[in-house]
Amino acid sequence: MKLIRIINIVLLLVFFSTDLCARNSKEKWLAKKPVIKEIVVSGNEKISTGKVKESIASKEQGFFQRLGLKGKNHLKKNSEQLNTAALSYLYKRNGFRDVKFDFEYEVGEDSGAIIIINITEGPQYFIDTATVPEDLGYKTERVEKIVSKLKPGDVLNPYRLNETVGQIEKVYADDGRPYRKVDYTLQPLPSDSTRQIVNFRIDPGPLTVFGEIEIDSLEYSSSRVVRRELLFEKGDVYSREKLIDSRQRIYSTGLFTYVDFTTNIKMDSINTSPDLTITCSEKKPRFIRIRTGAAQDSTYDLVWDFGLEFGSRNISGLGRHFRFEPTTRFQVVSGWRIIEERFGFYYIEPWPFGIRMPLDLSLEWEPKLRRTEQNIKTETYAFNIGTFKEIGDYIDIRTGFEFESIDIEGISEDSLTQFKRDELIQASRSLWAIFDRDSRLNIFVPRQGSVTRLTNRFYGEFLGGDKNFYKAVGEWSRYLSTSRWAVYAFRIKTGWAHSFESDGYIPSPDLFYIGGANTIRGYRENSIGPENDDGEPIGGKFYIIMNNEYRRNLIGKFWFTLFLDAGNNWRTANSFQFKDILATGGIGLQYISPLGPIRLDYGQRIAWKPVDGGGRFHVSILYAF
What we know:
Layout: H1 2-31, E1 36-42, H2 49-55, H3 63-66, H4 79-92, E2 100-107, E3 113-120, E4 126-131, H5 140-147, H6 158-173, E5 181-188, E6 195-203, E7 213-216, H7 223-227, H8 240-252, E8 256-263, E9 276-282, E10 286-297, E11 301-315, E12 320-331, E13 337-349, E14 359-370, E15 377-391, E16 395-409, H9 413-423, E17 430-438, E18 449-459, E19 469-483, E20 486-499, E21 542-555, E22 558-570, E23 582-593, E24 596-606, E25 615-621
Parallel strand pairs: 1-3, 4-6, 7-9
Antiparallel strand pairs: 2-3, 5-6, 8-9, 10-11, 11-12, 12-13, 13-14, 14-15, 15-16, 16-17, 17-18, 18-19, 19-20, 20-21, 21-22, 22-23, 23-24, 24-25
C-alpha cells in the first residue's frame, strides 16, 4: 500500500511539474507577442463569425500584411482584455445578457498564434413593452416620445436603454431639474422570460434656478461682452442646454482661447439656486501681421505683393473689431515698379442696436496709377456693408450691399463703355443674400449630415454701376455613413445668370465655369461649356452638376473613393438639353492630413455621345464637396 501511495505521489508531481513547465513555456511564447496566424470562432449561432472577427481588436494577417506593405498583426499582452470588451459590447447590444467567452491559444506554423474563441451565447432577450410613470405632468408627451422609439420586439440593448435614460435626463436638466434621477428595471414575462418589460423610473427632483453669475479675471474685456452672450440671467430656470449654447456663443466672439463654466451643483447635496462662475482666457486685443509673396498676374506675369495688417479685435473692451490693411503690388519682370496700391479699412460691430447681428463694414481705396500699356489712370473706391443672423444650430442667413466707383482718366466718353468691357474694369454695385444650412459634424471629413446653400446676387439696374444682371446658385449635399469605415456622399448644384442688358452681356469673370477637380473630374479645369472660335472656354449662364461618391477607409489615414460625376454648362438656360449631359467615372486616393484630405483622383470620360473618351488626373486639397 505504501508503495502504491508513493507511486501516485510521484505521478502527481510529474503531472503538475509537466503542466507547470508547459504553462511557463506558453507564457514565454505569449510574451514574445507572436504573429496572429488564425482566429477560430466556435459556439456562435446568432452572430456570424465575420462580425465577431470584425469587432475584436486582434486581426488575422490581411492582404497588405501578406504583401509586406503593412506591419504584421501580433498577439499583445492586453489582447484578451480588449477582445473581451469588444465581444461583450457586440453581444450585449444584440440582446445577449448572459454571454460568456473563453480564449485558448495554440502554437501554429512558424511559432505563430492560433486564437480560439469559445462563445456561450445564452438566450437572446427582447423588449416586450417600455413604460413610464403616469404622473409626469406636462413632460409626459416629451418623455413618451423618447421612450416610444423602443419598439416591441427590439433586442434588449442595455447601451440603447442607457442612451434613453440620458435623453430623459436631458429633458429635465433643460427644464430646471439638474437633480433628477432616472433609471429603469426589467421585468420578464411569465410566459416567456426572454421578453422583458422595461419600466422607467423618474424622480424629477426640485425646481432649480440660476444663482449669482460671476465672471472671473477679465483683463481686456468688459464683463458686458460675456454677459450679453448668455441665454439666461440670475433667477432664470436652470437649463443645461442654455449653458452649452451660451458657452459656444462666448467662444464665437473670437476674443477668447478658453471658456469654462463652473457650477456648485453636487448630486449628494441639493442647492436649488446654484452659483455659476465663468472663467475666460483672453486673446490680446492688438495685433499686427505682415503678408508678402509672389503671385501670377494676367498683364504683368510675375508680381510681388507686400502688405500689412494691424488693428484691434476688442476696441473699448466691447468686442468691436477694427483693422487697417495697406497692400502694394510690384512688377517683378523688367524692373521693380509699383503697379497697384490698395488701402482697406474694416470694422465689425458685434451687437448693433443691442441686437446679435454682427455688422461688417469695409472701405477700400485704390489710388490713381498709370497703366503701363496705355496712358490711362484708374482710381477705385469700394464700400461694403453686410450682416448675418444665426437661426438655431445649423442655419445662417447673410445679406449685404456693395458699392464700387471707378474713375478713369485718359479715354473719351464714346470709348469708355467698350474700354471697360475689354479691360474688365467695371464698377460693381449689388445686393446679395445667402441662406446656409450645414448639419455636418466635421466639415473636412463629413460622415453624416447635409449642406443646403442658396446664394443670390442682384447687380445694377436702380443701384447703378456697370454690371446689370442677376445671379443665383443653389447646392444640396448629403452624407450617409454606411458603416464604420465607409461614407456615401451625393451633391447636386446648379447656377443661373440673367442679364438686364439688351445684348445679354455679363462680364466673363461673373459667368459660370465648370470642369475639373471640384466639379466634373476627367476634364481640364473650367473647360466645360461654351467656347470661342479658338476653342477657349468663355463661360456659361446656366449649369448643373451631380456628384456621387463612395468613400471608404483603405489603411490608416488613407481612404479611397469611387465616384460618378455628371453635368454641363450652357450658354443660356434655354439651351439646356438632357442629351448634352456629360458624365465621368473614376477612382481617387486620399490622405487625411491635419489640414484636411489631400487627394489624387482619376476621372474617365464616359463617351455615350460624341465626346473624347479620355481621362485626366487631378491633385487637390479637401474633398470635392
